[in-house]
Amino acid sequence: MCTYPPPPERQEEGEGEEEEEWHSLRPQFSSPPRQQQQQQQHSAVVMLSLIRLPRVFTINQVPKVFHEDSIISGYRHPRSSATDCILSLFQLTNETLNIWTHFLPTWYFLWKLVTVVLIQTAWQDFFTWPLVIFLVSCCIYPLASSCAHTFSSMSARARHICFFFDYGALSFYSLGSAISYSAYVFPDKWVNSFFHQWYIPIAVLNTVICTAVACYSRFPECQSPKFSKYLRVVAFAYPYLFVNIPLFYRVFLCVGESCTDNDTNILHYNHIALAFLTGFLFATHLPERLAPGSFDYIGHSHQLFHVCGILGTHFQMKAIEQDMLTRRPWLLERSIPVTFSNSVGAALFCIVVNLTIIILYSLPLLSAPVCQENTHDKGLKKASAKVYCRIRPLGAEDEECCVEMISSSTIQLHAPDGLKANRNGEYKETQYSFKKVFGIQTTQMELFEDVARPLVEDLVHCKNGLLFTYGVTGSGKTFTMTGSPGEGGLLPRSLDMLFNSIGPFQAKRFVFKPDDKNGMEIQNQVDALLERQKRDSQQSVPKTPSSRQKADPEFADMISSEEACKSENVDEDCCYSVFVSYIEVYNNYIYDLLEDAPIDPIRPKPPQSKILREDQNHNMYVAGCTEVEVKSTEEAFEVFWKGQKKRRIANTQLNRESSRSHSVFTVKLAQAPLDADGDHILQDKNQVNVSQLCLVDLAGSERTSRTRAEGSRLREAGNINQSLMTLRTCMEVLRENQMCGTNKMVPYRDSKVTHLFKNYFDGEGKVRMIVCVNPKADDYDETMLVMRFAEMTQEVEVARPVDRPICGLAAGRRHRNQAFRDDLSRRLEERGGPSNAADDPALLNQLIESLPALPPCELVDPADDQTLPRLIEVLQRRHRIRQLMTEQYNKTANTLASMLQQFDGQLNAKETFLHDQRNRLSEKDKVIGNQRLEIERLEKKSKTLEYKIDILQKTTDMYEHDKRSLQQALETREQKLQRELSERRRMEQRMHGMVSDTKLKWEKECERRVNAKQLEMQNKLWVKDEKLKQLKAIVTESSGGGGPTERPEKPDRPSRERDRNLAQKRSASPSPLPDLSQTPSHQNRANVRAAQDAYPTPTTSSSSSSSAYPSVASCISNWEQRLPLDSSSQSRHPWTPQYRSRTPAACHGSSSVGRRRGQRWATDTEATATTLVYGLDLEAGSRTAPPVRPMHRRSQSAGGEKWVDHKPTSNLDLDTVMQPIIPNAIKVSTPNEKALSKCDKYVLRHQELASDGEIETKLIKGNVFKTRGGGQAVQFTDIETLKQECPTAPRMPILS
């Protein structure tokens, strides 16, 4: 509890009066009765405050390593103590139910283990050892999980190590399940199988591997969270799936008598269903992924994951116990016996190995962080922004306190009486830690020593700094920054320390001059003097406040002489100059408080706002801001007070003098080194170093519901809160980028305050923040927000500025120059020569002898007027000589002094040159060393790449060899396939030939029998006719009276002689009918028989053979043996596909026109015009000469005639070596008149099956000539036969 004394009298709160409160309340600090009454009224609260529950955070307030998917709030402090972790068991967080859902089942499984061990005396029965091991694993894994969830918030390293143990326990649980399954659950078919014998060794190996993989998955969690999650899922799922292979086979796949089918399978079904539900919840993060933030405390997937896992383990335990009891006799007789090695020994081995793995993975965490930030400035050292807290006293006696200082670095906030944090009425206390907490008894000097003094020392050493106060309105920010008489704040004490440190080494005015671009220029002494005279002469320009003027009595005693301090180790070889500027940020506009605007009483002009710009070093500055050069603390504070009077302050309900803008007082220190002589400043702009210290008094955040602001006050409050909110957002993004390695854009430009101080947070200086707290209960809500922002700001890291050397000149130049001046002035004051002339008698005698001799100066007569004038003349000559000697000595001394100075300058220049050369040499050495390291690294990388290239080359060669082998195998198989296909086609053709031959044979036999029967019937009819004629003749003879009559001519009897002749002319074996499917243009059998029926059969010898389907050769022979036809009775059939037939029909024609070989001739009684043979138009003619006998000769296609090579598309390529080659040939697949008109020779390639099944090719040749009708006709002249035989094929019998 806070015990603050009341003030002497009740006053309104305000930053103007809080100075008096701080000053007057400190000596009267005591414990009033009011506080004792509060302790008595809330004794229960005091008792509860002894057990301080830790504070919970949101996802934006903890590092990324602690984040859970879709969990927004309920996080514990990332650096909780062990006590806080244990206390969080009794506080509702997002881990509370995770802990209890595994901690309570641990006692249940422990009770089962004790029951089995003690009551059932398991250690005496080796058959129950697997059950004991399984129960031990069931006790270990929930206990390890609850402990891991309990202590995982101590730190990032502790979190990883805790979950290492959790993963090891889960792997051991999978091994316990495997041991129990091997002993009790294996199906009957698999008992004593090869898989059963190697089941436990493989399970042991899986346990070790999965523990290592699960522990490794914690390391890439920050860089690759998806990959880490994938590894973890595999490490959990793989051992479960392997262990349950016999169970899956038993309950899902096994069918038959040897399957273990009993009531236990129902328990196994329940266990499997819950196990898959557990994995589904772990992988999908349902239901919190559907509604992030709604299941943070109760009902998220990890809690359901724990519940389903425990229920599944319960059903698994019941099933194992039931299998052990029901299958015990059968398993003891047939299964693998339970031994120490396959039960207890395997479990102990896995425990030792898992602990070793956990230790090996935990050792790197003790030396390096797990999540390393991927920033571009890894080489820079970083330090977190330091945040301090200051508590002001209460303003009234009866006010309630809500802030308690627990230690020098921790405060605690508790809700006031009228505000309940929870529905059950309990107080919700929260604690916040800072770099240091300053109580109400802290003096301004103590605050300055801890907070501001390091920043001033850094300012002198060319380093920037930022110090700002933050808090609610009326919390003491202005008092902390400015102070009061006798209690000077941070600003006057910083100025006093600065001028005490650099006072003797300040440069004259206007030697340093701002260049209006956030830089400094150096002027020589003459230009600086002219600038001073010019400023003094211009009355319109306000003069710079002089340090000789009397200080304002209100601030004269702010800092006592006893409290004055200075910085040590100030560089005396530099000259310094201090410039101050004062601006305010009002409604997000920047105004210059030191600007002297012309006063117009008639039409006053509002002040003009300034803009922010970026200099050449990418630093932000206010363009056109007034920078005043000051030479003392009083002068600087007078400038500050001048601007303070222009600052916007207004009266509100909470503060009588409330700041309505953010003020920024900038102290800029310019320093440049002296030259080698130590007399003047180096006229080199590059040697000027400018550092600055920004002292910021932020306006207090306020709620309009309490201030009741309206109009412009409401707008001011909105802009103030918006700028503070932007500052908070920038801090959050900075912290997230640094902790999580992200690269989000920081919204500096959303506010002028954050945009102006952007460089400080990017590493241009140190950052300090003082959080001012008003402990009264009315500001509890605002104070809570301020505390959260302050605690978050502490986690932001700012790069430490690098020391900037001023120059390479030798040190002590100013001191040596001053000593030389003092000695020279002392020597010049001495008259008569060097200071040691009186000490040297010889030199003194020599000087006396060089002077003119003195005349006798004895006076014997008072009236002597010659001695004294002579003496006076001699003395005057001696005096002139002495003056000449003195002047000569002075000239010599000056020459010697100049020579000494020149030698000293040369010596210093050489020392500087040597120093520069040494520096360059050291830099070159460093560069060489870095290059050597880089060369070594590149050589190693080159060797590694060469090794990888060799491996890749070998792999490529292997792949190429495999590719060639596969291609050869593929080509071999393709060739084999082609040969098989060709053989198959040949076999099909052979079979078709055999079928067609057999078919033709039987058709011929049937026709022969029909013809024989027909001839027999004709003979019988002829006999009957003869008998009838004889009877008629007898009757006629008897009736006519017996006169002699003429005997009728005896008709000829049909004879078989012609059939015999025709049979002799035919071939011994019937020619096979060509395959109708392979003939390009063919007639069906009906057309052939129709052509045969069109002519009389018994009149010629061809009638008996017309139904025998003769071959082409037999047809041509018959044509040649016939008589020529009369051309007048012939008519040519159209060249159409339907007349194409292999067997020409018998036809009758008239007299022949000419002799054509190969043409068919018919008798006079035949009335056919022209016959088509294989689709060729044969013009008829009469034959006048004997038929030409066909001669078998070779092809005459080698001549110069032009041929029509008719090759039907259905012909097969036989791939034989000997192929008919016809030069000057037009190859066609279908004959046409156009091709025939261009050639005089014709050849037809006809294929048919021989009697042995082989394909026989016939080349039917003929001459092409024009017909009378203008068409083209072919006269066949020759036939060549090409036949292919297989030497290994069996000979087919010739059919007759």
Describe the protein's topology:
Layout: H1 18-25, H2 33-41, H3 43-50, E1 56-58, E2 73-76, H4 82-87, H5 96-119, H6 129-151, H7 156-185, H8 194-197, H9 199-216, H10 225-243, H11 245-253, H12 264-284, H13 301-326, H14 328-334, H15 344-362, E3 382-384, E4 386-391, E5 403-407, E6 410-413, E7 430-433, E8 436-438, H16 444-460, E9 464-471, H17 477-481, E10 483-484, E11 487-488, H18 490-502, E12 512-514, E13 520-522, H19 525-537, H20 553-556, E14 574-586, E15 589-592, E16 609-614, E17 620-623, E18 628-630, H21 633-644, E19 649-650, E20 658-659, E21 662-673, E22 689-697, H22 704-707, H23 712-740, H24 752-756, H25 758-764, E23 765-773, H26 780-793, E24 797-799, H27 813-829, H28 841-850, H29 867-1040, H30 1057-1065, H31 1085-1093, H32 1112-1121, E25 1172-1173, E26 1176-1177, E27 1203-1206, E28 1225-1228, H33 1233-1238, E29 1241-1249, E30 1255-1266, E31 1272-1283
Parallel strand pairs: 4-8, 4-23, 9-22, 9-23, 27-28, 27-29
Antiparallel strand pairs: 1-2, 3-24, 5-6, 6-7, 10-11, 12-13, 14-15, 14-18, 14-21, 15-16, 16-17, 19-20, 21-22, 25-26, 29-30, 30-31
Helix pairs in contact: 5-6, 5-13, 6-7, 6-13, 7-9, 7-10, 7-15, 9-10, 9-15, 12-13, 16-18, 18-21
Tell me what the structure shows.
This protein is α+β, with helices and mostly antiparallel strands and 1296 residues long. The radius of gyration is 62 Å and the shape is elongated. It is a multi-pass membrane protein. One of its GO terms (molecular function) is metal ion binding. One of its GO terms (biological process) is mitotic spindle midzone assembly.
